[in-house]
Amino acid sequence: MLKTFTVKGFDKEFEIKPHLKLVTVTDFLDGKQHNIGISFTYKEDGNELPFPNFTLNFGEFIALKNSAYVDTNNCWFADEILETGIAVDTGLTKISGYYKYPLWQFDEDFLKSVNEELYRKYSDEYDQYMKEYMADEAEEDDLN
Hints:
Blueprint (H helix, E strand, L loop, with lengths): L4 E5 L2 E15 L5 E13 L2 E4 L4 E2 L10 E4 L7 H5 L4 E10 L2 E8 L1 H7 L1 H28 L1
Antiparallel strand pairs: 1-2, 2-3, 3-4, 5-6, 6-8, 7-8
């Protein structure tokens, strides 16, 4: 079941709904892969309106499955979301401009609940990519 969240800001509460997307990025070998992206919407006067993108993409492949950088600069409610347990902060960050963005690893069940078909596509691609990458690494080790 899709989980919604209630967050506070601008002197009111918002009930927000997550959305999953796949973001095309470049991997270490200049190939195209996907990272996950998460955004939220809220309803106001019967209309579904976007919140700022929750996750950021820097165009590079993230080798930690189910992970994304969180836009703590524009999403004041990030800590509230983290407290729900849908993700863990990895302790890793990306610096861009004057801001440091944390890398969170999202719970697989949460991602499936948002969009199981899209998550399955991402997961299968990721697993296949890593399997091929690890096989290449093993072959290289055998040559040494």
